[in-house]
Amino acid sequence: MPSENDTIFAKIIRREIPADIVYEDDLALAFKDVNPQAPVHILVIPKQPIPQLSAAVPEDHRVLGHLLLTVKRVAEQVGLTQGYRVVINNGQDAGQSVDHLHLHILGGRSLQWPPG
Ligand code: 5GP
């Protein structure tokens, strides 16, 4: 089990592995998903290594709010004018595969509901 500072996303933040980064600020990084599930599939992550949403604490409220505003900003930046979906997979039953909180932005096509 990698430590929270040794996930693939921590390595992307540290520029140890490449990613197609579309936005960055002091608190957040956004980059294209390597295995896109829609024409636009971007991940927004905190630079602070919160492992998953259920591990967040009240002191994380600023960064959590910032992540949602970053989603909005990135969606506008990439031209998702017809809408988009924001997904957080939290834990095993949701299929979370990287232990660093990440918000998926999915768009560029009509999306089905409910997800599987
Ligand atoms: P999860 O299943 O945990 O909600 O989402 C993890 C996402 O990270 C997946 O959509 C997967 O394609 C993406 N991902 C995993 N490894 C990498 C990587 O090295 N680079 C990028 N850009 N995305 C990755």
TrEMBL record:
Q: Which residues form the HIT domain?
A: 8-116
Motif Histidine triad motif located where? Answer: 100-104
What InterPro entries does this protein's entry cite? Histidine_triad_CS, Histidine_triad_HIT, HIT-like, HIT-like_sf
Q: Which Pfam families match?
A: HIT
Where in this chain does the entry annotate a coiled-coil region? none
Q: Which CDD domains match?
A: PKCI_related
What is the official name of this protein in its record?
Answer: Histidine triad nucleotide-binding protein
Q: What is the lineage of its organism?
A: Bacteria, Bacillati, Cyanobacteriota, Cyanophyceae, Synechococcales
